[in-house]
Amino acid sequence: MIDKFINNSSEDFLSFLDIDFHMLLENNNYNSIMNTIRNRHKKEIASMLDVTSKKHHLIIWNAFLAKNILKNSINNTSIKSIYNNIYKSILDCSTLAELQSLELIIFDSYIHKSLNGLENKSNFIVNNMIKYIHLHIESYFSLNIMAKEFNNSPSYLGSLFKNVMNISIINYVHQVKVERAKLLLKTTSKSILEISNLLCYCDTSHFSKTFKKITGFSPIQYRNSL
What we know:
Blueprint lengths: L1 H7 L1 H7 L2 H8 L3 H17 L4 H20 L5 H17 L3 H40 L7 H7 L4 H12 L3 H19 L4 H7 L5 H12 L3 H7 L1
GO molecular function: DNA-binding transcription factor activity; sequence-specific DNA binding
Organism: Clostridium thermobutyricum
Protein name: HTH araC/xylS-type domain-containing protein
């Protein structure tokens, strides 16, 4: 229903969509968005905008905002519920003042929902990335290969991981590999070369340098200290 409404009303929607305002929405710039709406309300009052036109604008905004948030939401049920409640509220309004008050509520609701949705989706993706890393820790790690699995770009996933985890994905992979190496050094008699090969390091020198950088000990020193 939301997609259908937007598609059928696209020309009317574009006729009053302010490009700068659209950019504020893309960046979830809350204060600027709300100030822009309040300034627009003054112009609507001065021009004596009719109630029917204002209702039409809000109905389209409701559909547009809901559609955009659905793209970044894990749980679509709550978004559709908000959309339906707002749609009914728009129809129930009888004055321009009521519709303008409702408009502030509409944008407040969707902006906060958008911010929460983006955070939840980001955490959801990063959690799956972490699972992927642990499942494939004894394989050669490639961000490009993982990006194909997640149907996303390597740069996006790398940036997302760093923002959520405060560590680059490559450094995180090395930390996980070293933790696995510590376990193997402690519980098996595998040689440094065997462990290095098992964890897909290009050579023992690279493995040893990475191990020492993270733990402060070389693999041999670590094993001897147990």
